[in-house]
Amino acid sequence: LTRRPKGIGPVPFDSSLREAVKDRLTVHPDDCAAFAIAGRVPTVVASPKSFEQAAAALQACAREGARVVIRGQGTKSAQPPAPAALDVVVDVSSVAKSIYIRADDLTAVASSSVRIADLRAALTAKERFFPCDVPFAADATVGGALAAGSNGALAARFGGLRDNILGMRVALSDGSRAFAGSHVVKSVAGFDSHKLFIGSRGTLGFIGEAVLKLAPIPPDERALVARFADPQNACAAALDVAAAPVFPYAVTLHCPRSAQRIAALTALTRPDEWLAVYRFGGLRRAVGRAVETVRQTCAQHGCSATDVLDRGGVERAWVDIAELAGGRMYPATGWCAYRIACLPSEVPSVLAAAAAAWPALEISAHPTMGVVFAHVPADVAVDAPGLWRSVGAAAGSAICTSAPPGRTDFAMPPRSYAPYALFRRLKSEFDASGTLDPGRMLGAV
Amino acid sequence: MGMCHLASRSGDDRPHRKWRADRRFGRGLAVHAGERGKHPACADVLASDVHLAFVQGAPASGKDRGGIRAVHSAVRGKAHFDLARPRLGEEYGDGEHIARIVDILGRRKTHFAKSDLHDGRLCSPPHRDALVLEANPKRPMDARLRERLTAIVGERNALWTPGDLRSYGYDASIERALPEMVVLPRDAAQTASIVVACREAKVPFVARGAGTGLSGGAIAERGGIVIATVHLDRILEIDERNLFAVVEPGVVNSVLCAAVAGRGLRYVPDPSSMAACTIGGNVAENSGGLHCLAYGVTANHILGIELVTPEGDVVWLGGKTRENYGYDLLGAFVGSEGTCGIATKICVRLCPLPAGSKTMLCVFDDIDGASQAVSDVISSGIVPAALEMMDKTATGAIEEFAHAGFPIDAAAILIVEADGPDDVADEITAAVRAVCERNGAREVRIARDAAEAARIWKGRKAAFGAMGRLSANYYVQDGVIPRSRLPQVLRDVEAAGARAGLRIANVFHAGDGNLHPLILFDDRISGELDGALRAGAEILEACVRNGGSITGEHGVGLEKRDCMPLQFSPDDLALMRRVRDTFDPDGLCNPGKVFPTSRRCGESSRRVDRGEVDPAGARAAGVAF
To answer: In chain A, what is the greatest distance between 2 CA atoms, to the nearest angstrom?
Structure first.
């Protein structure tokens, strides 16, 4: 296909792809331009309507060596690194949508094209929720969220996506289709192959549907909002809370500029104060006791004021808080975004290093998890290696999750000690043709 | 034994395809049986000691039929013949060559079996016209390898006398097989050197912790080297601020728990064998425990692992931080039953100890009521720390033995633990009480003090041991079901026992839907062992039929590998095989585990026909038989 830039040609590849998706091909360059990724315009966009069609489309592309990007709603397609080459976009947003909820068993099966927002609405009607908050929730699909693998603040209590996905139906580039995992909350039968697809960015295969582990909507839910003049004190308080048996659902920390983006908390923000948000859920008395315990802990660490949000307040605030972790609040046209992982005790030094590097940045953190989200305005010169050196003392890593198209100064060096040889072998086992989003993963995988 | 590659019938001799065939069969051989007369290497291959052959292939043309019929007749009567397709002779072959091979193998009293590879389920089409020979695990130990391994670990840490090996020939399952040598490395460097030596000698190796596994995961079924983690038993770091610890794989679970308890912390996964089992074994099996209902299983508590890969490289999967980038190899490694490498350091997540806890006993006169109460508790949003269930058969035996205060006339009891300070725990127990009473509980009792709570839990933990009062042997199953299906599946369990003419006691993690039916039998009575295995298989079928899993925490290992097709299609298994091949392209790391052989779930031939069951010895092991 790359040798036929003017569009679709005759046999054999075009006919097999056309047959795979029952003629649902877009070939006009203007139409394909809407699916461009990091400036690369696909030659063909295939729009399967079913899991089987998607598998057949991947197989057709693999046979011809056409480089494929699988795309849901495209909310995260632009995240760097960009694909090394692009021939075909397989747009899976039209794949049949289904949600099957087993409320009593706290599980659900959702097809990958279901939007997170629709999933949440369906679960709420059954008094359940999926305890992972993902960015771009209004538009993102289940499959896209899993492929991107971005964990939100709720991971503090419920674990990340890998802990809440019980199974998955996947299709590989050779057309094979398989189920991995199970439909129950506990199983050790066979390998947890499905976990490999979480965060794989579409480089291993297409996630057709996922089995989700649900949590019941708790009888009571509240959040404590604490204001700190000094983020170091806020972090110290958060670490003390993590070591106490109060088990918050989530703990987030926001710089003054970042906090002002949380519409529900506008009245509580001050221009010179950081906001720490502790979210709790459970039985009424347990929540009340936890809120009081944390209030006292924050007071001991010099917080200037605290407020308590009720369930409605928590829900309103969380719409924005989830997006502060690299979501719609910071579009790639205007921001470079970094996700920095470190030990929880090193969050203060990472905050200080980032602030020193870029005074204009906006920063949020999940301090008990050791994750910092730094957002730098795109018009600021980025010194990625400098930041890397600053946070390199910490035992973690940093990746750029968003950057304006064409910017090349944002890239963080990959961790030298990651098992890249195993990554590459995994990639070749799952995608022997190498056609699925080549170059997407760090380490030249 | 060397590898042999010959052109296939289709003429497809592209290197990568040959290579894949090799890797897929591990130590075995993939001899493409096409192109008659062009197999000069066959004789060399066959001169080696071979114990297992898989014949597989695409439909053959008429001229091959005579040859493949010769295969059929050559095999029959000379060795155990278990090729499942009765019309094999008309379907497969490049007969002449296969016949020649089979003839030689037959004279060597080779053991033949149909493989799951036979119908191509685990094999992609290019390999279908192959004869696969698997190296004999019973060949003599290579003296040079023994010397090399001894030089790595020192004489005191290299064991090969029959007496020494016998201790490593069993675990807590019914499986038995002696390794050829046992080595006890002291660090990752020694472990890596051992693995490299094994790999170069093409000898399989099996990592072993305390040998408490219930599915034969640490049994060296194909001989080779057992790498025991006895000396890898140091707690290297406890970081209270960041809530993690770094330990070596031989650290005993309860030792780690004791080490962190004084700091107000705990390592949550608490399998019943925690007093003996090791963290490395827990990682391999993805162990659960009483408290994983609220806090998760081992996979949820592992941050990183230093791994010696099956190729002898030392790498880290994950680390000390909560997030790591790239493919989640750590997630795939935990629970891979030692088939993907050997962990030499493990970074575990620690949690604060709860501020307190309360234990309650809920008594029911009918088992459906108890089952429904479990389902209602979970679905109501209450998450107790533990939620266990036992039926009348179990409580009767336990009470005689442990005096836990269980009512022996009740159809079922629930044991519930609520974590938190007194007022919070009271709130949880009140909510559970309301649900139980709504479902017909005749009594709900809350332990008045720690001593009474300890007595109740002692009774629960004594359940397996108490079965000795009811029967000479028991066979413990480990299936999982959606919690809402508990009433139905418990009836299925009872029916399976009735069909086999055996009693079944139920003691299980009800909150997770993780059943542990204990099938009671007497191995001295002819047919009861087979009946127990049959009932076990039926129970697993019921679990899968109801949307569940064949194992919740004991693992697949050898015990359940032939039950895998109940739950997974050939394509699903092929996906797992790709994961295995990623880590272990040579197939030397704990071979024979997880993936099915030719037999059906519950078939006893492997154990009984080959005389591997030693009920007396197994009883001494104290768990299954």
So the answer is: 73
How far is the alpha carbon of B121 from chain A, nearest alpha carbon, in Å? 12
Distance, in angstroms, between B265 CA and closest chain A CA?
8
Helix, strand or coil, per DSSP, at residue A133: coil
Residue with tokens 């097989």, as numbered in its chain:
B177
For B324-351, write each residue's pLDDT tens digit.
Answer: 878 999 999 999 999 999 999 999 999 9
Verify whether the Cβ–Cβ distance A193 to B578 is below 8 Å.
yes
User: For residues A337 and A330, is the Cβ–Cβ distance under 8 A?
Assistant: yes
pLDDT at B607 over 50: no
Of A185, A342, A429, the CB nearest to B321: A342
Residue B602 pLDDT grade (very low, low, confident, very high; cuts 50, 70, 90): confident
Q: Which residues of B201-229 are buried (b: 16+ CB within 10 A; e: fewer)?
A: bbbbbbbbbbbbbbbbbbbbbbbbbbbbb
- How far is the CA of A114 from the CAs of A207, A318, B223, B468, in angstroms? 12, 21, 50, 53
Q: What's the predicted TM-score (pTM) here?
A: 0.85
Q: Quote the CA–CA distance of B406 and B391 in Å, as a whole number.
A: 11
Residues in chain B within 8 Å Cβ distance of A284: 427
pLDDT, greater one: B348 or B619: B348
- The answer to whether A251 touches A366, Cβ cutoff 8 Å, is yes
Question: What value does the mean pLDDT take over residues B580-598?
Answer: 93
Question: DSSP 3-state assignment of A392?
Answer: helix
DSSP class per residue in B124-159 = -GGGTTEEEEEE-TTSPPPHHHHHHHHHHH-GGGEE
3-class DSSP state for residue B451?
helix
Predicted pLDDT of residue B113: 36
Residue of chain B whose Cα is closest to the Cα of A368: B242
Count chain A–chain B contacts defined by CB atoms under 8 A.
265
**What is the pLDDT, as a whole number, of residue A393?**
56
Q: Read off φ and ψ for residue B33, nearest 5 degrees.
A: -100, 30
Tokens (6 digits) for A51: 């899991």
| Two tokens, residue B302 | 């592992």
Query: Cα–Cα distance between A274 and B292 in angstroms, integer?
Result: 36
Q: Which residues of B touch A242 (CB under 8 A)?
A: 243, 352
Which chain B residues contact residue A345 at CB under 8 A? 241-242
How far away is chain A from the Cα of B296, in angstroms, using its nearest Cα? 9
| CA distance, residue B271 to nearest chain A CA (Å) | 14
The label of the residue with tokens 């603040």 reads A153
Angle (nearest 5°) at CA A100 between B432 and A314: 60
Could you tell me which chain B residue has the CA closest to the CA of A396?
B321
| Dist CA A8 CA B601 (whole Å) | 51
In terms of CA atoms, which chain B residue is nearest residue A441?
Answer: B326
Q: What is the per-residue pLDDT for A415?
A: 64
Is the CB of A286 less than 8 angstroms away from the CB of B329?
Answer: no
Q: Which pLDDT does position B478 carry in this prediction?
A: 94
Residue of A nearest to B422 (CA): A286
- Collapsed DSSP state (helix, strand, coil) of residue B237: strand
Residues of chain A with pLDDT under 70: 1-13, 381-385, 389-395, 408, 410-417, 443-445
Give me the phi and psi of B304, to 5 degrees please: -165, 160
